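Exercise 3.2. Students should predict the tertiary structure of the chain below and write it as structure tokens, then compare their answer with the key that follows.

Predict this chain's 3D structure.
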Amino acid sequence: MNARAVKLKKAYLFSDLDDVVLDRIADLCDWRRYQKGRQIVGEQDMTNVVYVLTAGKVRAKRFSTSGKEVSYRDLDEGATFGEYSAIDARPRSATVVALTDCETAVLGQAEFLTLIQEHPAVAMRFIRELVQQVRSLSDRVFEFSTLAVNNRIHAELVRMAGDVPEEAGGVRRIKSPPTHLEIANRISTHREAVSRELAYLEAEGLIKKSRQVLEILDLERLRAMISNI
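Answer key:
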């Protein structure tokens, strides 16, 4: 298996494929690098290629007509994006920007569709990924409809903690955490509300924060605060 195929093997969609197939896919891909802050995909772009993130981190987001940013999710190495337009041939549904220097393997629409048709394991992983996204969006709709701002902040912290391993004492360490403004954009509030609530949670001993790391010290209590509505 060549070096580029080894990178593809780390991608969730492709992890079940054998070495021969991965070598072939690696040769089909257009390998691209993006510097931190560079836009990779633009909302409403009429493109339909699929991106495999082989190094770095990106953010999917949209902007309102007034310029307000709404962040959807951050993607790490091994994630894919761009599949929606490859499937339905409609314009891009979000803007994707590099949060760090990134490397991507870019697969054409026809090649991607052939891949999921010929390899059931890839198709099933793709379906599971879509189901997870639907569930996540359903949770967010429920939160916006039922939770106060402080509870939405708690829910976002719980969601962030779920993406990192538990350490001794139940601590979850979120490295390079989003800024207060970025959290506010995710849950449709303002930065000041996030700053106040995080200061309260720190005083209560639920979290400990610095610029580099956000520690979730009592995840179960945070969960209980969300349900206490």
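Discussion points: Residues 78 and 99 are 15 Å apart (CA to CA). The mean pLDDT is 92.
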